[in-house]
Design a protein that fits this description.
mainly alpha; Growth Hormone, Chain: A
Length: 412
Amino acid sequence: MLASGSLYVYALYAPSFKSRLGYSQTQTSAIAVIGDLGLYGVGPLTGGLADSMGPKRASVFAGSLLLVGYGLLSVGYSSGIESIKNNKPAPSFLAMSAFLFLAGIGSSACYMAAFTTLAKSFKQGRGIAIGIPVSFFGLSAAALAFVAQKFFLVDSDSLFNLIKDKGAQELDTGRFLLFLAIAGGVINGLSLLGLNVVPEPEIRDAEQPSSVAPSLLQETDNTNPTEESSLLQDSTPTPTRHPRRQVLNVSGTAFFLDRDAQYFFLIMLCLTGSGLMIINSISAIVEAVAAGEEYGSEPGHKKTPLATIQATHVGLISISSYVGRIMAGFGSDIAMSRRGAQRIDVVPIATACMALAQVVGMFASLRWLYLCSILTGFAYGGFFGVAGTIVAELWGEMSCGQNWYVDYVPQL
């Protein structure tokens, strides 16, 4: 999960694409969108791959694409710097977009390899069993931002000898992208040692809590017992097989036509897209707010480098997303077992947090922008802490990878 969230640190090196390769903000944003297209848009295919071929093969596929995608990005960026020094054009932003697209597909396959393993191995306490590992998907950006701050933040003049502002620091983007390539390949390679689906014994319907209201689940029940058959079953001493509450395999056309799946799709469309917009653009937002406030222009004021502020926002979003995922998964399990609540009750709470984050972002100064990042991460993580579990429990774990990423697409 830590390796699958590497696309969320795009905001760290996006400013280098603008300042060093000469890309416009529109081109930089287009690269992010195409990378997200690889992560989310191709998700149904990588989910189906993990469902049909197993998590180990999906992990090998993921590691290969991460190694190639980020490796080509590193080479493209470094060669672009040399080209600009020699008064030659930088690589096309479309080429860089294609490289990030490959990394996005690799991240998607990496996530699905881990998610399908969890969903198919655990049927009780899924909120915790899935929520805690998935939380590391959100934490990955904070971990990578920390690594970038400690090992890849260097003096600008030592890199380019073009900086008027001596002592300024920025990310060594070429080396950092190479690190992402190697780390993604190695982590997925190591996952082959222990990534196995170990199904739990089947549990009875009465023992398994539901993610949603019974009325939603009744639509998927193909049996319609009469009053007479119910009385006969009650008076018969022989044991009967209890049907599972959820349908084992709702996928394809049946999933698209399912009313509850359509509602869930709309929730994803309204909630997660706005959060992803902030996550991918937080560096540009910080730059815009800082420029509007004439940040660091006061006499005698020692300003914090914008690169450090941007990395702090990336870390805050990541950490709050991590906390939100754990709280949603763990809290929903407790609420279901002790309070009779439903797992889907987390969704309105996450929606309210995301709406508040948008309002804060509209009016925030550079100081209060931190609150926008925290609320965004908390809402985004809280929703995804339970969303995958809801999909697995309501429509079955047999095709949960494919179904989950079908609902993932609306983020684009």
